[in-house]
Amino acid sequence: MVDLVLTTFDWVPEAPRGFVRDIRVRWALEEARLPYRVESTPFRDRNAEHFAHQPFGQVPWLRDGDISIFESGAILLHLGQRSDVLMPADPHRRSETLEWLFAALNSVEMASLPWSVSKFFGDADDTPVRKRVNEFLKARLRHIEPVLAGREWLAGPFSVADILMADVLRLIDRFDGLAEHRACRDYVVRATTRPCFVKAHADQMAHFAAAD
Ligand SMILES: N[C@@H](CCC(=O)N[C@@H](CS)C(=O)NCC(=O)O)C(=O)O
User: What is the reported pTM?
Assistant: First the structure.
């Protein structure tokens, strides 16, 4: 009996494939070797049941027995409590994992998302707002660069913090935003060549391709 059920869209357009956030959950589940199955919810017609699990009508969400949990960060924290492969048992390491998990989402992703969105929609690079957005992201990358140059993973062993940070950074890399940040790029390569990421990515691509 598989208790863990991950829900993602039944289909998405080509552009976000490989980057839909269910990949974070797939990756964590693979690393922890937790058995799970994947269910789909319609991308086009978001129904009441969808909003009951994810109040913004987004994905992913995870069901673990009678618990239903949304927000990729919260889901990874939840899984981290089930597996010390994802969250080290040592209290100091655990605390570092938590701080880096939040840093990935609340310090780096909050700067990278506006940047990625404007890149995606091809905004001009020289508007005053766009310059601010560029500077905001650059400041984050400037400070994360020496951190990643000095260690293999963020909190000692590989953890959920790395899943989130690497996933956030690889979207920046997709739009060539890490060109001047060698340590960030190397970290993304280190993380995304892990067999569990490779499987999670291939599974997501196959999931959406099956709906074409
Ligand atoms: N903060 C949420 C963001 C979820 C999110 O942005 N999901 C995207 C897919 S990666 C989505 O559902 N987009 C469709 C939409 O926003 O309508 C999380 O990390 O789970």
Answer: 0.97
Predicted confidence at residue 178, as pLDDT, reads 97
* Ligand 1 probe mutation, 56, 76, 117, most atoms within 8 A of CB: 56
Per DSSP, the chain holds a count of helices (H) and strands (E) of 9, 4
Distance CA 183, CA 28 (A): 23
**13 exposure class (CB count in 10 Å sphere: 0-12, 13-18, 19+):** exposed
Residue 121 Cα to ligand 1 midpoint, Å, equals: 17
Interval between CA 71 and ligand 1 midpoint (Å):
8
Q: Which residues sit with their C-beta closer than 6 Å to ligand 1?
A: 20-21, 57-59, 71-72
Residue owning tokens 């058995």: 35
For ligand 1, atom 16, name the residue with the nearest CA.
58
Distance, in Å, from the CA atom of 149 to the CA atom of 94, rounded to the nearest integer, reads 21
Mutate to test the pocket of ligand 1, among 20, 21, 45, 207 (most ligand atoms within 8 A of CB): 21
- What's the pLDDT tens digit per position in 17-76? 999 999 999 999 999 999 999 999 999 999 999 999 999 999 999 999 999 999 999 999
Going edge to edge, which strands form the sheet with 67-70? 36-41, 4-9, 61-64, 67-70
How high does pLDDT run on average in the chain?
Answer: 96
Residue 1 has pLDDT above 70, yes or no: no
